[in-house]
């Protein structure tokens, strides 16, 4: 919008919140449509950033069918829209297409190691088939597609209790609760700050690169190191509590970003601690806001509970 583009946001708020975009409401270049991409959409656009899908394990395991529908029917609908209006579509894919990888770091030519019937499959396989759909539409219908394989990302406006590592640790540290580490904590992740990802997505959308591109920060940390770092940045006296390992939890995760560097001239620039401090500041403000509204969120457990109410 700052560059003069008109932006239409389409969201059904399954995991998002209006508060995240309310500061743009009323801007002449901004429009917000409450819509689920599982239903067809008829609008005139020239670029589509297809970011729809729950992305944290508790969210996508809570409603795996909804997650599958969003990634399959939703992607077909967006590709159909792209075909109708001649738009270019960027798919927000994921590092989860690599599963629990046997190759380290993960480059774009690695096919992955995914359990197709495990608890994470609705997301992993949903994104894998979404990629397949993109290239089928490109080959058969000539639709221009871009595919970003996004690695762990964090920053302000994350949902506090979405059950992801960063939000869990920050929330627990701020509330003086134990930081919950699943398994030994030796599994690794690579975290990028949200503004770096946005710059990467825009660069990819406006490039001529139609094959998948990893967007992530190759700086790798163990979950335990990460818990310790957040504890120190918050200044928290919280203990670290070890819980049993989550099923199919990838043991290693690190992007090979040589392709993004070479073809997009992109790499992450925000240092981890700087990004974390911004996220911590946001979470503090959110907790104050919630306290004033008499509501304190709790991090969601990493596992699905039986007998929970379902929303179809």
Report on this structure.
- By secondary structure, the protein is α/β, with parallel strands linked by helices.
- The chain has eight helices and twelve strands.
- The strands form five sheets. A four-stranded parallel sheet has the order 3-4-5-10, with helices on both faces. Strands 1-2 form a two-stranded parallel sheet.
- α6 (223-234) packs across α8 (272-292).
| Largest sheet: number of strands, sense, barrel closure | 4 strands, parallel
| Counted beta strands | 12
Shape: globular
Count of helices? 8
Helix/sheet category: alpha/beta
Low-confidence stretches: none
Share of residues in helices: 25-40%
Mean pLDDT across all amino acids:
90
Question: Cα-atom Rg, whole angstroms?
Answer: 19 Å
Roughly what fraction of the amino acids lie in strands? 15-25%
Distance between the termini: 34 Å
Strand order, sheet with most strands: 3-4-5-10
Order of SSEs, N→C? EEEHHEHEEHEEEHEEHEHH
Protein name: UDP-glucuronic acid decarboxylase 1
Enzyme class: lyase
Pathway: Nucleotide-sugar biosynthesis; UDP-alpha-D-xylose biosynthesis; UDP-alpha-D-xylose from UDP-alpha-D-glucuronate: step 1/1
EC number: 4.1.1.35
């Amino acid at each position: 919008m700052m560059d003069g583009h008109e932006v239409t946001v389409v969201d059904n708020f399954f995991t998002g919140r209006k508060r995240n975009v309310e500061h743009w409401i009323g801007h002449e270049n901004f429009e917000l449509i409450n819509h689920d991409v599982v239903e067809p959409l008829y609008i005139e656009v020239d670029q589509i950033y297809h970011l729809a899908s729950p992305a944290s394990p508790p969210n996508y395991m809570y409603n795996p069918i909804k997650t599958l529908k969003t990634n399959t029917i939703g992607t077909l609908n967006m590709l159909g829209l792209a075909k109708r209006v001649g738009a270019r579509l960027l798919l927000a894919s994921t590092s989860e297409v690599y599963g629990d990888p046997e190759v380290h770091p993960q480059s774009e030519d690695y096919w992955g190691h995914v359990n197709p019937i495990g608890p994470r499959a609705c997301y992993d396989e949903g994104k894998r088939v979404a990629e397949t759909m993109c290239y089928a539409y490109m080959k058969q219908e000539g639709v221009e597609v871009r595919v970003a394989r996004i690695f762990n990302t964090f920053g302000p406006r994350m949902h506090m209790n979405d059950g992801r590592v960063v939000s869990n640790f920050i929330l627990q540290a701020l509330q003086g609760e134990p930081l919950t580490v699943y398994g030994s904590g030796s599994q690794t992740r690579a975290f990028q700050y949200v503004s770096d990802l946005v710059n990467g997505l825009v660069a990819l959308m406006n490039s001529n690169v139609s094959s998948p591109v990893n967007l992530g920060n190759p700086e790798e940390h163990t979950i335990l190191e990460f818990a310790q770092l957040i504890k120190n940045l918050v200044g928290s006296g919280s203990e670290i509590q070890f819980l049993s390992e989550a099923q199919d939890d990838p043991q290693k995760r690190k992007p090979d970003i040589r392709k993004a560097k070479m073809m997009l001239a992109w790499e992450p620039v925000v240092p981890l601690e700087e990004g974390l401090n911004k996220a911590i500041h946001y979470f503090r403000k959110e907790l104050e806001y919630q306290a004033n509204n008499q509501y304190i969120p709790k991090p969601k457990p990493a596992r699905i509970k039986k007998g929970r109410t379902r929303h179809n």
